[in-house]
Amino acid sequence: MKTCLLIVAFVFVNAFAYSQKTRLDKVIDSCITTRNFNGVVLIAKNGKVDYLKYTGLANRHYDIKFSPKTRFQIFSITKAFTAVLIMQLYEAGKLNLDSTISTYYPEYRGEAAHKATIRNLLTYSSGRDLKEMDLNFIHEAYDQNLWPVDSFINRYCSEKLIDTPGTKFNYSNGDYILLGRIIEKIYKKPFEDVLREKIINPLKLANTNYLHHQDIVANLNEGYQNKGEYVDSLIMPTLHYMDNHFSAGAMYSDAHDLLTFDQAIFNHTLLKKSTVDLMLTAYPKLGDVAFGFWVYPLKIGKTNTLFAERQGGGYGNESNWVHLIDKGVTLIILSNTETVNLNKMRLDVLAAYLDNK
């Protein structure tokens, strides 16, 4: 009798797991067939991979499929790494979040130098006029020229203040580029060296690194932009210099390495719990932004949860990283076609996963 009950329980659990995966596959397959999603979807519970799917082409010139070997250009997910490096400095007593930019970067000549704080930079509320995000200058800033970091900052991130620092959220690359330069000033080392020493090497992130435009990186994906109204009409993006994104976006990684980084943050490996709690404290008046993330309560399907998110994107590459703080659930979606709204896709995927738990 006991054996029979065990068999029934085993069959039930496996049937449940199969049903759940079938629902997830239906959501993702719909994104593939109707929106030409190419990339990877990873879901983990308490750091253990619960669902993993690769689909489509990483390189269309040579018909190379996505696989566990593929590395993705993650763009603004880089900002989460930069935020952790800043919080490590804070935790070590080498940086005060409420000190101004000029305290650590005295050469900075923007009007924000003596008015905007590290906290303001972390929350995109420096008050600067964001020349580096202006459509009139974006191609010049990122595509047409390779800039030394100080030259980029002097040309694009040193404009006058248009808001009082700390009062208005205004998303930018420049605030995190300034943070990266501050990291360099304090450590007296290049940002990429600090990144490797403090995060990449300790966590053994074998498929994660800083990316220069001339680097030859094995298994690095290409990004493809959508042309016109048809999702299967893809083109190669224009030449761009990844280096110019610096500490705001010049990294590559993969889903498993990002999961390792995720667990190192939320399990307090890289930072103390009190520091992580501070890092993940949202500023409702600034659009629920925290340091490197956005954090807010959200209902997904039938489930109420505390939602932490970080996105990245550029030149056809898109990435979406979610951690449900009170559920221990991590979702990572990486893609090289911009044809899918990943913010919608992630909620559909999570609803299919959570509603059957």
CATH topology: Beta-lactamase
What is the helical fraction, as a range of percent?
25-40%
Strand order of the largest sheet: 2-1-13-12-11-10
Contiguous helical run count: 12
How many distinct domains? Answer: 1
Instruction: List the secondary-structure elements in sequence, H or E.
Output: HEEEEEHHHHHHHEEEHEHHEEEEH
Give the uncertain stretches in residue-range form: 4-18
What is the tally of beta strands?
A: 13
Write the CATH architecture name.
3-Layer(aba) Sandwich
Rg of Cα set? 21 Å
* Helix-and-strand structural type: alpha+beta
Termini separation (Å)? 28 Å
CATH homologous superfamily descriptor: DD-peptidase/beta-lactamase superfamily
- What is the average per-residue confidence, as pLDDT, rounded to a whole number? 94
Largest sheet geometry:
6 strands, antiparallel
Characteristic terms for this protein:
alpha+beta, 38% helix, Beta-lactamase, single chain, three-stranded antiparallel beta sheet, 357 residues, 12 helices, globular, six-stranded antiparallel beta sheet, 18% strand
